[in-house]
Design brief:
Blueprint lengths: L24 H10 L4 H4 L2 H5 L1 H29 L7 H35 L4
Length: about 120
């Protein structure tokens, strides 16, 4: 069953994905989710045929990216000077990593919202 168009969307709902219950919303969700996973995964038939499975993989992918960005942020001040980088580059890089963590956290919330909508459409009422 599809969700009605009166469903209240999360503020984290991605603008690239149509509102649940609207025409072709699942296709827009699948397209958006495919952009979040490595290309080799996006072409696997099981992930293409089952958007909820693709959403699960995207959640895992984004969580791993958050871990990587946090590790890079946490180790930057100790490890980057050894590479001979100027302090200004190190500071810029730390800000970049911090911004990336925030952006990835937002994407994770968006993936969760889409995942929940995809799972709800497959549940009997």
């Amino acid at each position: 069953m599809s969700l009605t168009t009166t469903t209240r969307l999360s503020p984290d709902w991605p603008c690239q994905v149509k509102m649940p219950g609207s025409y072709d919303w699942e296709r827009s969700a699948t397209k958006w989710l495919r952009e979040l996973v490595p290309a080799r995964y996006a072409s696997y038939p099981a992930l293409i045929r089952h958007p909820v499975l693709l959403a699960r993989h995207a959640q895992i992918q984004v969580q791993q990216e958050i871990r990587v960005a946090r590790t890079a942020l946490q180790t930057a001040r100790a490890e980057l000077p050894v590479l001979g980088l100027p302090e200004s580059v190190i500071e810029h890089t730390i800000k970049l990593y911090a911004a990336e963590v925030l952006q990835l956290q937002h994407i994770a919330r968006s993936v969760r919202a889409v995942s929940e909508a995809l799972a709800a459409r497959g549940m009997p009422r």
